[in-house]
Design brief:
This protein is of the alpha+beta class and 197 residues long. The protein is 34% helix and 21% strand. The protein has two domains: 66 residues, no CATH class; 96 residues, Rieske Iron-sulfur Protein (3-layer Sandwich), CATH 2.102.10.
Length: 197
């Protein structure tokens, strides 16, 4: 037996501790690297997929600003309001009153009509043959150019030679000296008025 103590079990091996620490550090570093690569790779793949699905094919006019706008819209999944603004503009313009001279629909009796204008060249007739149906014609008789003056019993009357015209078609009756119908005008109903053009 030897009098010297056994040092192999009580003194730690410095090399094995150093190696263990290095192994632990490399494992952590490897995990960190793999996680970062996985997250970064997924982000790159997602950005590439979004870029492929959206955006414009036309290059932006102002470089960076347009690109960041497109990118922001793509990543949030929202659409821009340009289309709705355009739609809104269209709706606004279509909601505008039609062109022409307005006549209140309530002023035009069903089965009759009214005459507007001071002389034969500017006069027009608005009729409502049936409820909600409006017609319009020139107020100048096609016989000798007199101004028509009244609408009675479904007929537009000219006082000069007693010609009569149908309130639905503007056609003269067979007994009339006028042989041509009154020229039709456009009657467009909008709101509580009919616009004559």
């Amino acid at each position: 037996m030897s009098d010297q103590p056994d040092t192999t079990s009580t003194v730690p091996d410095a090399r094995s501790e150093t190696n263990r620490s290095a192994v632990d550090r490399s494992a952590v570093d490897r995990r960190t690297v793999l996680r970062s690569a996985g997250v970064g790779g997924a982000g790159v793949a997602a950005a590439a997929a979004l870029a492929a699905c959206g955006g414009t094919t036309t290059p932006p006019a102002t470089g960076g600003a347009a690109s960041s706008t497109t990118s922001a819209a793509a990543t949030t999944g929202s659409s821009t309001s340009t289309g709705s603004a355009t739609s809104s503009g269209s709706a606004s313009s279509s909601a505008a009153a039609p062109s022409g001279t307005p006549v209140k629909t309530a002023d035009v009796p069903v089965g009759g009509g009214i005459i507007q204008g001071n002389d034969a060249d500017t006069a027009f007739v608005v009729t409502q043959p049936t409820a909600g149906v409006f017609k319009a014609f020139s107020g100048k008789c096609t016989h000798q150019g007199c101004k028509v003056t009244k609408v009675v019993q479904g007929m537009i009357d000219c006082p000069c030679h007693q010609s009569q015209f149908d309130i639905t078609t503007g056609a003269p009756t067979s007994a009339s000296q006028a042989k041509s119908p009154l020229p039709a005008k456009t009657a467009t109903v909008s709101g509580d008025s009919v616009y004559i053009a």
